[in-house]
Amino acid sequence: MARTDKSDDDLKRYYSIGEVATKLGVKTSLIRFWENEFGHIKPNKNSRGDRRFTKENIQQLREVYHLVRERGFTLEGARREIASSTQPKTDKQEIVDRLTEVRRRLAALQF
């Protein structure tokens, strides 16, 4: 029988804003700012008003991060790029995630 171990991350449904900030390497205030600037990012909120981000929300934030921080888009330019995107966002995000992982591995190999 093949074991299919799932990490805690695979089993999680919702992430706190702090967890998302750590994943992206940004401050929580930037995530709140991007949530206000990009209307398609809509995390769930619990009864206390705490944001609960889904994996889809995290992918949306990664896309914004990639456009704004890595490619140098303005906020307006990033909004236009997201709106005009013809390739499904998940495919683009998977490619970005793979390339980020390759970059991380290459950096680990450097002395």
UniProtKB/TrEMBL annotation:
Membrane-traversing stretches: none
InterPro entries, per database record: DNA-bd_dom_put_sf, MerR-type_HTH_dom, MerR_fam
Positions of the HTH merR-type domain: 14-84
Cross-referenced Pfam families: MerR_1
Keyword set, alphabetical order: DNA-binding
Highest taxon of source: Bacteria
PROSITE patterns per record: HTH_MERR_2 (PS50937)
Protein name: HTH merR-type domain-containing protein
Organism field: Neolewinella maritima
